[in-house]
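quick one if you have a minute, typing this from the bus. below you get a single protein, a line of residues and a line of whole numbers that encode the local backbone shape. could you go over both lines and see whether the tokens make sense for that sequence. anything you notice is useful, everything is just below.
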Amino acid sequence: MNNHHVFEELINITSKENVMVNEPLKNHTYTRLGGNADFLVTPETYEQVQLIVKLANREEIPFTLLGNGSNLIVKDGGIRGIIMNLNKLNDIRTTDTKITAQSGARIIDVSRAALDVKLTGLEFACGIPGSVGGALYMNAGAYGGEIKDVLESAIVVGPNGNLLTLRAEELDLEYRRSNIPDKGYIVLEGTFALKEGNYDEIKAVMDDLTFKRESKQPLEYPSCGSVFKRPPGYFAGKLIQDSGLQGTQIGGAQVSLKHAGFIVNKDNATAEEYISLIHHVQATVKEKFGVALEREVRIIGEDLE
């Protein structure tokens, strides 16, 4: 199937303004890294998501879901085929003590929506930059809370384009993982079961967590957030700090001086430099402390030729 034909098909499914060709992915990731996407498509309905998945299957076109790019490194060679971004599916609605949020909504905004209607349970998410879809994908968590604590159900598109409604238990949520990648699901929405609370108390917790995040995290530079999972019995940031790695730089990528668990794009880094620095940190920590740091951030795409 030629590229012109793919373009026409995608426009037929969505519309011209929702299909970008050879789009630099560094414009769509928090790290500001990444080569071009062959086709970046932004569907506006669940049916469009299903049709795009079916098109990719039928024509055997490589297919990648981007999320909002907050916990992701795209390599310098970019990504072939169809890349889907769900940021136009961002509706958040409340019914009694439940909030249903579409995949492209930011989990921060869901946390704020809960505060507005005096519901408690999502305070921990007030500083997580990811989308709802990404938060379910990796069972995102912070400050002692995680998605698993509050998720009731999800609507997903299966690998053959069918719509499924799943209970939270069916997603096998564990520390920073779910079965969503293994099963090839695309999250369309999640429903969170919360409890009635007191506005001032909920706000106080969120203000406190926001202060902690802003004082500790290097939000002034592009980054993918926390690079590594917490190794059992340790803290990744402390191990990296104790290995003397803070400030270490490869090209434009630097181990943050503010929080060693973060790698920042300080000066127009390439993905190759960023990934090299991740490997260097892993090798050094392994050598000094015998601990294997596991990546929390996803790396996708192709190297430059």
Summary: Residues 271-289 form the longest helix (19 residues). The longest strand covers residues 186-193. The CA atoms of residues 127 and 212 lie 9 Å apart.
